[in-house]
Amino acid sequence: MLAEMDGFEPTEGIVMMAATNRPDILDPALLRPGRFDRQVVVPLPEFGERSAILKVHVLGKKVDESIDLDTLAKSTPGMSGADLANLVNEAALHAVRSDRESITQADFEAARDRVLMGQRRESVAMTDREKEVTAYHEGGHALIATLFAHADPVHKVTILPTGQALGVTMQLPEERHAYSQDYLEDRLAVLFGGRMAEDTVFGVTSTGAANDLVQGTELAKKMVMEWGMSDRIGPMAWGSKNQVFLGEGLVSGRDYSDETARVIDEEVERILRTQEARTRHALIEHRGALDRVAAALLEKETISGDDVAMLVPTPSGAEEDPSSANSPTSSPSLDQSSSD
């Protein structure tokens, strides 16, 4: 490729284009002036762009006149063009399965839930005890997300086995381009909500919090190592910039001392334990609301974020634990649903 590029005459008027999702590993020889010296970054679409993309993909499909694509676009932050195309196709399939002649808003809702949360597993039969534990677990996620001011709003909570999880709490994040420390702390608190609800109600925890712990630990590490949200570490970034396809740990060395590694571990643990304690305090204080949310899940199996809000007496954001006021913490999700 390099030889061909060097062989072009200026008068031939030929432009060579290429695409990659890993610009960080490209050979510098490809990027020097005269070669691929122009870079066009294609980010995920914003609200207006998602709306326009949806309008393109519904062309040629029978869509109910009541469909509001702008509303649908607002509820799909973080989706790429391919995700939106898949969403429209899933909605069309759902309409066919429901014997409808046109795609309705309900089909789009069902398709979005399937894309974001996974397919419902009809074959899984949970015991009464498992259902109760799952109801309190998901109720803990939903309650904390409703109480804490900076958490993403709850869209739907279900204890029906979905994807690889026994239950799912789905949040719809607002469109953000930067994440504050307050938001990240509340995100960690929501992740701990399920585990702490189990511990508060039953006195023991289960394996259902495995994915929550993985997400929380990764988030806390980024806060300490990449985003400077630890007073002890200070404004320093220790994240690796030389990632490769088959595991960065195999080829990259650590660029900090053993003492710094120890401090990083201590700070990550402190952040996680601080948010765990904050979550426990909120769940104990609002135990009545937790019981109501869990009871609603056991009765209906799936409830909406509005249903959760009606079961929680205090307004969103009223609960704030003073112990968390000066606790450094940090950064984004990416996945805004808690699967257990």
How would you explain this protein's 3D organization?
The protein is mostly helical and 340 residues long. It folds into three domains: 2-31, no CATH class; 47-117, Orthogonal Bundle (Helicase, Ruva Protein, domain 3), CATH 1.10.8.60; 128-339, Methane Monooxygenase Hydroxylase, Chain G, domain 1 (Up-down Bundle). The protein has twelve helices and four strands. It has helices at residues 2-6, 28-31, 47-57, 69-74, 81-97, 105-117, 128-147, 181-202, 210-225, 258-285, 287-300, 305-311, and strands at 154-158, 168-171, 302-304, 337-339. The chain has a four-stranded antiparallel sheet with strand order 3-1-2-4. The termini are far apart.
Structural class: mainly alpha
Averaged pLDDT: 82
CATH C-level class of the largest domain is: Mainly Alpha
The fourth-level CATH homologous superfamily of the largest domain is Peptidase M41
Largest sheet: 4 strands, antiparallel
> What is the terminal-to-terminal distance?
48 Å
What's the architecture of the largest domain, going by CATH? Up-down Bundle
From the spread of the alpha carbons, the general shape counts as: flat
Percentage of helical residues?
40-55%
The count of helical stretches stands at: 12
CATH topology of the largest domain: Methane Monooxygenase Hydroxylase, Chain G, domain 1
Strand content: under 5%
Tally the beta strands: 4
